[in-house]
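Page 37, continued from 36.
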């Protein structure tokens, strides 16, 4: 609720500014807030929305606010709250998605963002597991909403379209007075709603399902308190302000896109410019529009961008095919952003260096999990150390638990975390929840890390898939991947261990060639890279026991919605291939 409260506390002028931008249409805090209150009215009353409710009336933006709020107040007093009911939300990144989340919280419900990429079977699994009783969605998903809600015995509502600022352009001068009155009344309305449902900090507010890259997806329950603690932490650490404008290209059913790039910016009063589908050309174009020449800045310039490593790889590939003049303009524009960040998976050091050489930005790397969102971060000001994820954010406590008593001098082992943004529980899995915490209350992340001589944390990988046990050595797959990515012919790679009778596990590298190497391979009719060639190249860069003994060259790697390689799926594909060959 902290994000909603922050929006309600904005002054009249701030409430009129754009909160969300989609396809060049802007939606103010006031408009989203009002839409959320109206949707809350429907949810709490238990009424159904017809398809016509999915479209705003022509005079919706100049409706008498006193009458609207009075109606809402009467409804709140006579209706029950959702009492923790789970509300599924399926919508593209939009003002409607934000209004749906805010309405759920105002109504005392628990928001469950649903992945747009999920097939029907996976949506049903999540909805049944979470016990979703209400589904909110936009009209483009009407057919899907009807199907899945019927199969889950859940009722569905179409999200009302939020009025955009362009609808108010011809309004009279008295609109300023009305907006100020509207802002005050909406603030009072929120207070009335909170009184009626008694929202407590430790009550569930959000369930996000893990990506399932190392096991079955689990529902992670966050409370109003943990959400509030995280958005405050991020806004302060990375200095989000109302002057910021974020270019958002991430899915909203993961914490990176939901917290770092949406909830924390809105808490700070910033604007979020949604690009529902990542586009290399679109991102470079948006930056160039923001900063058309060196030292110049458009009125609606992007100031912050956060992405996953795959996005930066694709952006670099797009930059490489530009003509010299376009490259100069693109590099200059990117350089003028205030902040660029990267996360969700390890950023290869060669990618970081190449990005810095072109744009002047050393990407800010940080570390988080669905269970506590962000815990470690390189600093905003000062040294950002490549290959590390920085140090604990304010209020976060961490420790390294070694597998054996003989700890290494620099500290190496499993990362354990305590944070004010820690989740409450895994949904309906009390045993798994208990086993995930030590007796001292620290959450066991399952990630192997080491701390360097300067106190910066280095992620070695998931203990279950990224720590290889080869001939008595424990090796980091991420370290080997970073080395292989230095090879000019390799654009992507994943390293994992496959069963081996002699060594326990064999180091297997699955690689994807870069565009130039692919073209050259076709022209010369010979492989651009072979195992022997790779081994000879790598022997001067890493220890011999870290060099891959098996090599696969694929066209692409299996990735989840956040661009993270699904190593569980990748390993199974390789094992199945071995079975077919045997």
């Amino acid at each position: 609720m902290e994000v909603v409260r922050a929006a309600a506390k904005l002054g009249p002028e701030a409430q009129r500014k754009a909160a969300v931008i989609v396809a060049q249409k802007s939606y103010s805090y006031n408009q989203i807030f009002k839409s959320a209150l109206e949707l809350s009215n429907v949810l709490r009353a238990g009424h159904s929305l017809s398809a016509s409710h999915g479209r705003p009336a022509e005079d919706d933006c100049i409706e008498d606010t006193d009458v609207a709020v009075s109606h809402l107040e009467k409804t709140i007093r006579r209706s029950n709250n959702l009492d923790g009911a789970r509300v599924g939300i399926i919508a593209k990144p939009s003002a409607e998605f934000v209004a749906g989340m805010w309405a759920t919280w105002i109504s005392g419900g628990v928001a469950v963002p649903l992945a747009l990429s999920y097939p029907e079977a996976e949506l049903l699994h999540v909805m049944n597991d979470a016990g979703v009783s209400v589904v909110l969605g936009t009209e483009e998903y009407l057919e899907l909403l009807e199907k899945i809600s019927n199969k889950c015995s859940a009722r569905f509502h179409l999200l009302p379209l939020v009025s955009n600022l362009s609808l108010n352009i011809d309004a009279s001068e008295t609109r300023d007075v009305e907006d100020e009155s509207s802002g005050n009344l909406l603030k009072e309305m929120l207070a009335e709603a909170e009184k009626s449902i008694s929202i407590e900090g430790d009550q569930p507010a959000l369930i996000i399902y893990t990506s399932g890259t190392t096991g079955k997806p689990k529902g992670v329950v966050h409370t109003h308190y943990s959400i509030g603690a995280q958005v405050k932490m991020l806004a302060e650490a990375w200095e989000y302000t109302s002057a910021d404008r974020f270019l958002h290209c991430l899915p909203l059913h993961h914490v990176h896109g939901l917290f770092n790039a949406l909830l924390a910016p809105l808490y700070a009063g910033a604007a979020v410019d949604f690009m529902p589908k990542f586009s290399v050309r679109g991102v470079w174009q948006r930056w160039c529009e923001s900063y058309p020449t060196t030292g110049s800045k458009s009125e609606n310039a992007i100031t912050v961008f956060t992405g996953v490593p795959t996005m930066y790889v694709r952006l670099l590939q797009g930059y490489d095919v530009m003509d010299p003049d376009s490259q100069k303009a693109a590099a200059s524009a990117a350089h003028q952003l205030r902040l660029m960040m990267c996360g969700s998976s390890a950023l290869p050091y060669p990618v970081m260096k190449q990005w810095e050489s072109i744009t002047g930005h050393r990407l800010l790397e940080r570390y988080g999990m669905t269970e506590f969102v962000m815990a470690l971060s390189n600093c905003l000001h000062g040294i950002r150390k490549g290959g590390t994820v920085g140090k604990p954010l304010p209020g976060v406590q961490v420790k390294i638990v070694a597998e054996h008593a003989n700890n290494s001098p620099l500290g190496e082992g499993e990362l354990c975390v305590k944070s004010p943004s820690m989740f409450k529980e895994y949904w309906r899995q009390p045993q798994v929840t208990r086993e995930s915490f030590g007796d001292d209350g620290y959450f066991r992340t399952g990630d192997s890390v080491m701390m360097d001589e300067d106190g910066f944390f280095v992620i070695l990988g998931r203990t279950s898939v990224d720590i290889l046990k080869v001939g008595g050595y424990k090796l980091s797959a991420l370290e080997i991947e970073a080395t292989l990515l230095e090879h000019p012919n390799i654009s992507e790679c994943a390293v994992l261990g496959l069963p081996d009778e002699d060594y326990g596990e064999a180091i297997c590298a699955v690689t994807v060639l870069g565009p130039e190497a692919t073209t050259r391979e076709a022209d010369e009719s010979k492989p651009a890279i072979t195992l022997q060639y790779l081994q000879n190249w790598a022997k001067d860069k890493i220890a011999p026991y870290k060099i891959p003994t098996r090599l696969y060259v694929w066209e692409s790697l299996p990735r989840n919605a956040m661009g993270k390689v699904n190593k569980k799926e990748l390993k199974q594909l390789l094992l199945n291939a071995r079975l077919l060959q045997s």
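Residues 521 and 527 are 6 Å apart (CA to CA). Flag for discussion at group meeting. Confidence is low (pLDDT under 50) at residues 47-69, 169-178.
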